[in-house]
From TrEMBL:
PANTHER family: CYCLIN
GO biological process, one term: cell division
One GO molecular-function entry: cyclin-dependent protein serine/threonine kinase regulator activity
Name recorded for this polypeptide: Cyclin-like domain-containing protein
Residue ranges constituting the Cyclin-like domain according to the UniProt record: 46-136, 149-229
Keywords: Cell cycle, Cell division, Cyclin
Native species: Arabidopsis arenosa
Family assignment from sequence similarity: Belongs to the cyclin family. Cyclin C subfamily.
Keyword Cell cycle carried by entry: yes
InterPro entries (alphabetical): Cyclin-like_dom, Cyclin-like_sf, Cyclin/Ssn8, Cyclin_N
Record flagged with keyword Oxidoreductase: no
Amino acid sequence: MASNFWTSTHYKELKDPEEVNVVHPLDAQRGISVEDFRLIKLHMSNYISKLAQHIKIRQRVIATAVTYMRRVYTRKSLTEYEPRLVAPTCLYLACKAEESVVHAKLLVFYMKKLYADEKFRYEIKDILEMEMKVLEALNFYLVVFHPYRSLPEFLQDSGINDTSMTHLTWGLVNDTYRMDLILIHPPFLITLACIYIASVHKEKDIRTWFEELSVDMNIVKNIAMEILDFYENHRLFTEERVHAAFNKLATNP
């Protein structure tokens, strides 16, 4: 993995917000809306997490897999790249990239446990075939910098030694992968936004520390607002709406 974010392919691949939730023409023909697109990506992010928990894969690998999946769909359609195959394939690829080996046979075993539908009972050969398509969709750029990397240093530097504050901030960072923030913002700004939310919630006054960082606090606060908006709207993301979105994908235009 590259050691410098600013010279990495991750930095070069950052998107403008308006580039991220663009519905592919093939998906639009099936009636997929921007909201459907978001729902499907959220559902598949959760699916990757569930699958990884069964296989006992660490959080960083899950985060890399979700990032790959979300990157793929900035370039490819849900119609041509079936999400229920792309998501586990991204997890398989992330395990390799993060040097956390998992056997494809084990992955397929738990995929079948989580998806009972015969149509989506994929085999090892399906994972391996999709792996090449995912790699091409990613332009073979596998480097991902995560907000986790700077979190311990920032927490220590801010003088926060509160265990509950630390746990809250880590949880917030985990939840950012249920959104597209990692595709848009440098990871350290996501980290700062999570610390900002946690400090307000826990009534920790670290405003002076933020001022000394020489970062644009407007950007940090905007990211924080996106995270809070997600929590506010999360109750609207029902299984019924997810199923309805997937049903649109299954129809012929």
